[in-house]
Amino acid sequence: MTAHATKIHTSQMGTSGPFVSRFGLGTMTFGSETDEAEAHRELDAFVDHGGTFIDTADVYGGGASEAIIGRWGNQRGGLDDLIVATKGRFAPAAGSSGASRRSLVRSVDASLKRLQTEAIDVYFIHGWDRDVALTDTLGTLGDLVSVGKIHNIAWSNVTGWQLQKILTTAELGGFPIPVAVQPQYNLLDRGIELEVLPCCLDNGIALTPWSPLGGGWLTGKYSSDTRPTGTSRLGEDPGRGVEAYDLRNNDRTHAILDALRTMAARYNRPIAHLALAWLAARPGVVSVLLGARTVKQLTDNLAAGDFVLSDAERSELDDISSVGLPAYPYRFVEEWCDVAVWRQLGT
Predict the structure, then answer these.
(1) pLDDT tens-digit readout, 176-215
(2) Is 60 considered catalytic here?
(3) For 100-121, how does the pLDDT look when each residue is reduced to its tens digit (9 = 90+)?
(4) CA 203/CA 178 separation, integer angstroms
(5) Catalytic residue among 60, 123, 185, 245
(6) Which CATH number describes the domain made up of 10-345?
């Protein structure tokens, strides 16, 4: 660790998972938007700043992200001092795809080869697969844990009922219990607070959110009257997914940005630091995934690692970003059944 390193703040994934750094490194850009040399510099900078959790997937860069991490790890003598997570579900694996036994076994073996490691610390199923029996998926994951190819299982991009079904099926069948869920979560999108987050809190499951800055919106670089252009995600594709310019260019978004600017001025910090601090302090969140195209973007955001909002500032951001509970059943249940979890979340 270099002279630039900071004190490592770690939290445990779930009740039995590994301890991970407050910020994780998301590597979706590696091999597509970020070349290998810059990716290696990002990995070096992340570790130098005390980061311990690296997140990738077999579909990132068509496998290039995992391979880049593997070659970097080989150059430094291995990945054993870090927690490395990857995902399977969407990448073709020798003519197979999905969360079936055939696909997952092939996907895990391919990921291990690219990562140049003997075991995956946390293996995420990248999304629900309606065409495969859940017992088949969980049974396969259990077998992979038993033979030491993966250490912990987790899920990404699920609804509340899907997560509860995973948990119930695992408990009844004696399969491994997920230690974490990886959803989109940020000040602009708090949808997981209705069902997914309460389910996680009730079952001791950790969150490792992706898109903490809303695809760049929470850096303040997009304005209400100018469509983005240039070398940014929305500049290259303004209609990009849930982050699309026309979808998020609304009064609520700009009210949140105005509040962040006001708070940021008090501290002389970028507004991204406040958005990251808000998310890192949310119940259940153990590691916020930072994705970056360049070392500068990464180190700018890592500088938020020591920043903590006051209770009053968190409450203000809760209020201004809240979309409120639907009248039924959520408000009805909260009022008549005294379910306090939504009040805790400021939803």
Answers:
(1) 999 999 999 999 999 999 999 999 999 999 999 999 999 9
(2) yes
(3) 999 999 999 999 999 999 999 9
(4) 10
(5) 60
(6) 3.20.20.100
